[in-house]
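Weekly modeling sync, notes
Attendees: S.R. (lead), two postdocs, one rotation student

Agenda item 3: backlog of single-chain predictions. S.R. asked that every request posted to the team notebook include the full sequence so nobody has to chase files. The rotation student volunteered to paste the first one in as an example of the format we agreed on. Action items at the bottom.

Example entry:
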Amino acid sequence: MSPRGGSPAPDDEGRPGPRGKRGGKSGGKPGAKPGDRSSKPTGRQTGKRRTDRDGAGSDRGGSGSREGAGGRGGSSEGENGTAARPARGRPKPTRSRGVVRGRDATPPREVTRPDPGHFLYGRNPIREAIRAGRRPVHRVWATTSAAREPWLEGVLVEAADGDWLTERAGTDAHQGLCADVGEYPYVEGASLLEKPNPLIVALDEVQDPQTLGAIARTAEAVGATGLVLPRHRSAEVTPAAAKASAGAVEHLPIAQVRNIADFLGDAKGAGCWVYGAAAKGAPYRSPDYTGGVVLVMGAEGKGLRPRVQQMCDAIVALPLRGRIESLNVSAAAAALLYAVLDAR
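Predicted structure, as returned to the notebook:
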């Protein structure tokens, strides 16, 4: 036993043991008697050594030595070629964005906003574009759940997460699907007039794509021949319009003309009757809607422009029994189109 404050007691080989440090043959604290509990490694120390994954060996008799650890008293944390202590916690799994269905493809990385004329989002617009076959669907980006849609069989589908699709589409209404498609196939206005007894909807400077989509959906549902838009100061078939139409724009022929009033003159020359919708006019059931018919709807709040209204054979109006002074354009178009369908 060493005197108080003196040097540590020598070990079995006559060498002083390390002070306050594990390892060596004597180990423990200076001045500890053989067999004393203080000379044995604590449960915390042994637990730590047992959890080391470097296969360095086990403790013997609490001496602190370790076989295969690169020497007596050697540390297992990155020294002498041994492995470092493993990080605490469960490793975070990585997410794969590989191909869900179709040929090998590179996972999407670009998030720049695409050309609206070559882009669709939402289940119905993309599905109807595939069904109609009027423009090519080059590839589809889809979440894992959306990629299971059976109508995507045979289509090149690339995996993408919802955040990427939202940034790509500019809206969170994509329903897990976006698509790269061909340019929208507008038709010539004259081709609509060549159909027998056509039913055509003409929109006079309707600039809201949501309204355009809603009217196109109703027009396609009643079996209209087509829809006519002016080239300027009017909404076009955009991804938002296609989404609002639930894909109806992929089936309904839509024409862009230079001037709506001139088109109405051509329609009258082809034997069609032209009816404009306004707040004040004849009861909407009074005209004879058989034969060729062009129904003209004006912009929200502005209505029909004077020259367009002059080209109409009659102005019809819907009855309003409540306190609201008017309907929105898409609701009025729906009521009038079904009145025409009922009369025909």
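Discussion: group reviewed the output briefly. The first helix runs from residue 43 to 51.
Action items: rotation student to repeat for the remaining queue; S.R. to check formatting next week.
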